[in-house]
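Question (not urgent): is this output format expected?
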Amino acid sequence: MYDELHMHNFEGRTGKTASHYHNYSGVTTKNPDFKGHVHYMSGYTTENNEHIHYYSIITTPGFEMNGGHVHFFQCITTSDSGHYHLIYGYTDIYTEY
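Got this back:
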């Protein structure tokens, strides 16, 4: 249980800036499942208006939900084409206990 490594999927859409959005998705780092653990997430958004944005996030500690746990995440992307976007949401539920 607590010794097992696990990861979470995530996906979403950025906040609207400069009249457009970007989508993002990925998988967190693999981490042991112990109380208070966090995950690292990084990647880049889909291309829109001929540019992309990069992001790098450390999640909050996990909290229980629907028989498993999730993590909250939030960050501001890199600034590209003169603007940035807000990314925030929750990872998917990890339930393999």
